Amino acid sequence: MQVACFDTTFHSTIPKVARLLPLPRRYEERGVVRYGFHGISYSYIAQRLAQIDPELATGRTIIAHLGSGASLCALKDGKSLETTMGFSALDGLMMGTRCGAIDPGVLLYMVQEEKADWRTLVQTLYHESGLLGVSGVSPDMRVLREMLAKDATSAQSVQIAEALSLFVYRIRQEIGALTAVMGGLDGLVFTAGIGQHDAALRQEVCKALSWAGVMLDDAANQSHDAIISTPDSRVRVRVEPTDEEREIYLSVLTVFSGCEGRYAPLTSFRKTC
């Protein structure tokens, strides 16, 4: 037996109007719609919230999956209502080497003025953009912060600082959009490599969200506590590690739960998970 776990499945609850792209209908017929990604990670966090924080699990919560790939998911009543990635994993937030959402006119410029073919577009947009492209140095947030700490005055450092600022700006921008879609915000969850470990980034994002009711506990944030918002914050802010491999494993066990014979040991082991 083979089991496929799709990274898009969790977003199947997104309303049709949010899935449509403003293109001729023939593209929709060919499957060119917004699918969303990082669904396995979001599914894990949603199930985790149901266990440790039912209020957020059933409220209006934004999950920020911030790593080399990055996206946000608006979770309402435990289901995906909207997400920042769309037809491809190139959409949405600025990432390590991916550009995220940009004006399509830029692509026309590259084709018309630089005579770029599709291979050049793929290489540029997927592998040479994002933090790497803007900083001119590295796609790794840790490397960029270390370099900036050593020298904050060189021309290279200016580019690094701009890359970090743009990364944070895009996150704040998309959080604002998702908050509007949900009609408010009850919770914000940071996860994945950058979201879980970069206290400075969490601070930069949260400090700009006071309008939404976010109040950050600086000490809790620096020590990477599970809850990093103040007790009187209208929005609860959490830091939670994701585990996509575990979520895939549990999904496979769910499929096997109706099987007998050689799959029985797997289904019985599920009770310990």
UniProtKB/TrEMBL annotation:
Pfam families: Acetate_kinase. GO terms for molecular function: acetate kinase activity; ATP binding; magnesium ion binding. Pathway: Metabolic intermediate biosynthesis; acetyl-CoA biosynthesis; acetyl-CoA from acetate: step 1/2. It is an enzyme of class 2 (transferase). The active site is at residue 7. It catalyses: acetate + ATP = acetyl phosphate + ADP. It is found in: Cytoplasm. It comes from the Bacteria. The record marks 38, 98 as: Transition state stabilizer. GO terms for cellular component: cytosol. Transmembrane segments: none annotated. Its EC number is 2.7.2.1. ATP binds at residues 65-69, 140-142. GO terms for biological process: acetate metabolic process; acetyl-CoA biosynthetic process. Catalyzes the formation of acetyl phosphate from acetate and ATP. Can also catalyze the reverse reaction. Homodimer. Belongs to the acetokinase family. This is Acetate kinase. It comes from Acetobacter malorum.
